[in-house]
Design goal:
The chain has 279 residues and is mainly alpha-helical. It is 74% helix and 0% strand. The protein has helices at 2-10, 16-20, 25-45, 53-77, 84-106, 108-111, 113-116, 125-151, 164-187, 190-205, 217-223, 227-239, 247-271, 275-278. Helix 9 (164-187) packs parallel to helix 13. The longest helix is centred in the middle third of the chain and has 27 residues, at 125-151.
Amino acid sequence: MAKEIEQSLTGEAMAPAASDAWYPTRQRDVYIIRQLVTRDFKLKYRRSTLGVAWSVLNPLLMMAVMAAVFSQFMAQRDPTIGNYPLYLILGNTAFTLMNDATSQGMRSIIDASSLLKKVKINRYVFPVQKVLFAVLNYVFSLVAVAIVMLFFHVLPTAHALLLPVPVALLAVFCIGLALLLSTASVFFRDVIHLWSVVITAWTYATPLFYSTNILPAWMVRLELFNPMYHYVTFIRDVMLWHQLPALSTVLGCIVCAAISLAIGIVVFRKNERKFILYI
């Protein structure tokens, strides 16, 4: 795999790459990220019979299972949720985006070790590429969201045009986390195993299959410090409840994205020169 990437980046496998080597650094990085996203897309669906359809079927199947288990319970506890299957799939797809982006981004530097030892390339492109690939998969999963909306006769409104805003802010938040985690995993491999535990705890701490209305007041206050709560709420506001998100929700998304990106960049830049000694 590393050899294939190396060939595409050095121009041995693809003709345009030779000319792209003379591009300015930023433009060359964009080209490399595009090539890596394309490669990951092809590898993910190369031997799959259904191919991209799995990006649609997977959230649909997960929604069906969770709806069968929790729908009756939640309908009794909080009737204000509205369409519960749509409530579920909007939360699950957003959380899956974060999970995929950070989990893959965390391993991006380690997985690219053979390439980094051979080709001079800006290291940040690897975690950023993993996040963009996760966003691409999220875009495909929106087809599943559209199917659920059509099935339950939930028509989108003009508020749905705001969906790119929380998705873009969530992507920035994930880039910051991916930069931080990829740095930490290079020096401490245990981070890879620990992160799966964090993700599991984070899943239950985020109102994906339950509503904050059934939580005690002190737990609702804690949710304000949960970044995914703000992103999921923003997405549900514009897609499910057809309303503008509260200012606190928008600010929560912006602040979480800015803090995550700032910390990720600082930590990554401070340590990236040492990566070659540990990968």
